Structures are given as C-alpha cells and as structure tokens.
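User: Could you check the structure of this?
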Amino acid sequence: MKLWHCADARSFRPLWALEALGLTYELEMLPFPPRFLKPEYLQTNPLGTIPFFEDGATHMTESAAIVEYLATRYRAQGAVDLAVDVAGPDYGAWLNWLHYGEATLTFPQTLVLRYTRLEPEERRQPKVAADYARWFVKRTVAVENALAGGNDWLCAGRFTAADISVGYALLLANTLGLGDELAPVVQDYWQRLKSAPGFAGAKAAQRGASAIPAA
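Assistant: Sure, the predicted structure tokens are below.
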C-alpha cells in the first residue's frame, strides 16, 4: 500500500487509519498544493488532489472512502476495529459520520482556507470566509448532540473510522483558528481524539517522511 500525502491535509484521514490499524504502507510526502509545487505528481493523479492511495490494482482519491476501505477490507488484520457490523444498529450512523466529516464539516472549511490563506492578497474574500466559518461551527451541533450524555465517541460506544473522519475536520478547525468557537463538549472530544489510536503515529509519520528529500 502507498499513500501520497501533504502534512495535515485531507490525506491525514487515511494516514491516521493506516496507523491505527497497524498496517504496512509506504508514505510519500508532497508540498501543498502538489499540482503547482510538484507538477510531476499529475502523472500519478491527473486531478492533482490529495490524497492518492494505491493498494495493488486499487486506486482511490477520496479520503473518507479510503478510510472506509481500510476499515472494512482490513478489519480482521487491524490492531483496532475501526468498522461496525453491517447488520448492527450503528452501521447507518457510522456511514453517515464518515461522510458528514468530509461533506458537511470539511467542505466549508476549505473555503475558509482558500479565501484567507491560499489566494493572493488581492483575491481574498474575508466575508466569504467568515460566512463559511459560521456555517462550519453551526454544523458541529450534530457532533455536540452525539456526545451528549457522556458519550466519548460518535457511535458504537468506541473509537471507529467515524471518529477519524470527523476528527480530521476538527484538526483543520484548530489549524484555522476555529477550535475555540466549538462547544466545550466538542473541544473535549478533540482532546480525546489526539490520544486515540493512530493519531500520534500519523503525526510522527508525516514529520519523519517530510524530512526525507524528494527523489
């Protein structure tokens, strides 16, 4: 298995899953955005997006889908169980959180990132960024509700791939300075996530790999 990754980008989701499961993989670090800063990457992924994941003949580009693939395909071999049973009561919630983390929580933050940091000064849009920051914060109420009553994790009563998907959105929120706007129960959840299986390993892996000069 091989993962193409930029530090703390969406590709952190599959990196976190790989580390949590204890699987053997190759990591290639890229500068962000790679389609501009390392154009030869387009030969690997013509979209130029991160992540790109390869497992034999399987090629994938969607971070939450890769996490789902790893959690289910390698469930039996994993050091922890990131999946839930298809016939179980939490399967629907698990799938929903996997997609909620990306489509509902990460998407608005990408616009904040673009219009506050990535665009040239003359193209930045602080009003657009502020609107989407509010959108993101309001949509974390679902996370807040899921954790109500003392729940440590989003579903199944344990740490799963659902927490990895949503956890990355919280990582990005803290990178963008939005973490302090979240409800205390969500901030406490973020602290638990940083001690969850695979998180520290993923952080260490990207630090170590990024120290290796590109070939």
